[in-house]
Hints:
Chain A: InterPro entries: FA_desaturase_dom (IPR005804), Fatty_acid_desaturase (IPR012171). The complex is a heterodimer of chains A (371) and B (364). With 371 residues, chain A is an all-alpha fold. Chain A is built from 14 helices and 2 strands, in the order ααααααααααβαααβα. Chain A has one domain. The two termini of chain A are 18 Å apart. Chain B is an alpha/beta fold and 364 residues long. In chain B, the strands form 5 sheets. In chain B, strands 4-3-6-1-2-5 form a 6-stranded antiparallel beta sheet, covered by helices on one side. Chain B has a 5-stranded parallel beta sheet with strand order 9-8-7-10-11, sandwiched between helices. The relative contact order of chain B is 0.09. Residues 270-274 of chain B have low confidence and may be disordered. Chain A binds chain B through residues 21, 25, 28, 31-37, 43-44, 47-48, 51, 90-91, 94-98, 100, 102-104, 107-109, 118-119, 122-124, 126-127, 203, 206-207, 209-210, 214-215, 218, 267, 270, 304-305, and chain B through 17, 20-21, 23-25, 28-30, 32-33, 80, 82, 84-89, 315-316, 318-323, 325, 337-338, 344, 346-348. The complex binds flavin-adenine dinucleotide and FE2/S2 (inorganic) cluster.
Amino acid sequence: MGTSTPQLTEEQLAALADELDEIRRELVDDLGDEDAAYIRGIVATGQRLEALGRALLWAGWFPPAWLAGTAALSVAKILDNMEVGHNVMHGQYDWMGDPTLNSKMFEWDTVCPAEQWRHTHNYVHHTYTNILGKDRDIGYGLLRMLDEQRWRPYYRGNPVYAVVLMLAFEWGVMLHDLEIDRLLSGRRKWSDTKGIRRQMWHKGVKQTLKDYVLFPLLSGPGAMATLTGNAVANLVRNVWAFSIIFCGHFPDGVASFSEDECEDESRGHWYYRQMLGSANIDGGKLFHILSGNLGFQIEHHIFPDIPAWRYQRIAPRVREICDRYGLNYTTGPLGKQVGSVWRKIYRLARRPPDRPRTVLTGASRVPAEAA
Amino acid sequence: MKNHDTGLTRRFLASRVVTALAEPHGVDRYLNLVNPLWSVRDVRARVVAIARRTPDTVTMTLRPNGLWAGARAGQYVRFGVDIDGVRRIRCFSLAGSAAGAGPLEITAKVNPAGTVTRWLATRARPGLLVHLSQAEGEFTLPDQVGPHVLLISGGSGITPTMSIARTLRDVRYPGRVTILHYARTPDDVVYRAELARLARTCPRFTVTYRYTGSKRNGHFRAQHLRAITPDYADAHAFVCGPAGLLDAVSRHWAAEGISDRLRIERFTVAGAPFLGDPGTVAGELWFSRSGIRVPGDGRTLLEQAEAAGLRPAFGCRMGICHTCGSHKPEGPVRDVRTGVISAEPDEQVRLCVNTPAGDVEIAI
Ligand SMILES: Cc1cc2nc3c(=O)[nH]c(=O)nc-3n(C[C@H](O)[C@H](O)[C@H](O)COP(=O)(O)OP(=O)(O)OC[C@H]3O[C@@H](n4cnc5c(N)ncnc54)[C@H](O)[C@@H]3O)c2cc1C
Ligand code: FES
């Protein structure tokens, strides 16, 4: 953990928890029509854009139509995955009692099965945020994202792996639950993954069939235009989602934690860790919608199941609380945060000068620390 | 569109190819953009008329979409309506005739402390979209109806018996129909005008009222029955209404040894939520899919389920990940973080942060 992180006493942590619980209570009491109208509006907008995009791609031989169609489809997929999918699956709208917006029943327009996402993300990542060795989102078992992760020659490829992960992000997210690093190092048996592999296969086939077979076939002579349009839309979504997500926990200024620090932690310490372990992104209204309000990563991490569009309103209060307790409230514009993340990816690829003796176990080809 | 066409359209929309194209959200999401009533999966209905016939009732006429599979006389629906962003689901009997494919009718008595009926009374407007289950319930006419049907009702309990009466009228039932209705005052009888017309035009129907608001008549007594139909023991009898009426009637039928000729519909099942101190032993916890019943002991639903040998899915055990979310058909639960009690039927609850606050059913 960064040396500048202030340590709070148990009393301070309890007071912090009380203050945040109070904000949470206010938010919960206020949930109602406005939230329902908001999320249904976003769902409808996404659906309209998708219909529009697919219709325009039928005329995809005409370049402006291809461009507009691909753009509309990209935005539709981004809305579906970020402001709708990610947030609905957090249970932010479970209170509405609407089966189509229920965390347990929702499926999203990406290859990762919703059920697995809920496990790796809602449970593992949100409960153990930034605890090295427990939070598998730290480098996705693939990258070195923290100084505390022991360096290996494998990590020389850090930037390459990051680029590949970014371009194929939906597939990376899908494979996440396999814990490939643990499979390779023998800490997880291949046969244990049978169930989730079957789910991945089913979801992957359905998504591929839709975007790369059925819709192109329906376009007849324009099949190629539709196919490339769909592929680019998926790619745009991949790059966007990767960038937003990596800016949530890896820019400079974000703290990580050890398992010891977090053993039997209090609610106050959980809040404290969530705030220090997350980073916001500044931006306008449209940016926040397109990023699923993950620009309010700090607010999201303390209240993961409160409708995300409300984070904006409580952000000043959360920031004030952070200031008062001397906690770092990391934030910056998208460009700066993305730059910070990529600089880190490059920097951590190099062997750290202060720790020249790196133990090299020949058997493990990929890093194991993050597992 | 004619029924035949809509059937074809629906089959096309529910076909494998269209489903594959609409992955992963399903066809309904796109149909909703055009018309929120359209669905290939869910019964939805539009409120086409609203009448407030007595001061504390609201009667709604509903036109369901093509998925509605029809009802038998006396059945009810689970009726869902979005109120302040939350879908509230309550049971209401269908009061309309089951003969023919006319619109549906529901009459709700307004409970001044209730969420849905109060909202319906003041806010519901024609055009409102509601979510329905298919018709449910066993409070229906048998396949072979004998020569005499006796319908006893109290208050809002008139709705299912009204459906039976209207259906018998429409199918030109050749037997006798005796209706005995209990209400506070004459002005509280929702279907008074129609029942009067029925008694006038169909000689085989007799309608009798007893008013519990006045001293002379009072609540159910066997004399009431004997006075209007001495041979009531031979009839197919139906009773629906407040608990007191149901108890009195079923006791009487039991005493005469003819309980098999009586059908009862209860509008209230769950007991009142226990509102004592948190942590106090309260109520019975029923894990209905596993058939396990344990006394509520103040621990969370998750801990109690585990103690009972169940293995519900969980993640954080602190209420943030929703992994433990489970369906709660009925009963009050208390959120240990806020102390707030929720007694909503058919809601999703997180097992790890709720304790039972009365008799609770959890569908695990
Ligand atoms: C098969 C069936 C058929 C029915 N048919 C009809 C019909 O045709 N017409 C009709 O009018 N009714 C009918 N009912 C009854 C109707 O479903 C109920 O009266 C329903 O509860 C009304 O909904 P509400 O939202 O107005 O009241 P609710 O909000 O459900 O409240 C009901 C009562 O519970 C109490 N309560 C609720 N939550 C709490 C809490 N947390 N703490 C303390 N008390 C609480 C309220 O004070 C109120 O008195 C039927 C019921 C069944 C089971
Ligand atoms: S186990 Fe995470 S919400 Fe209950």
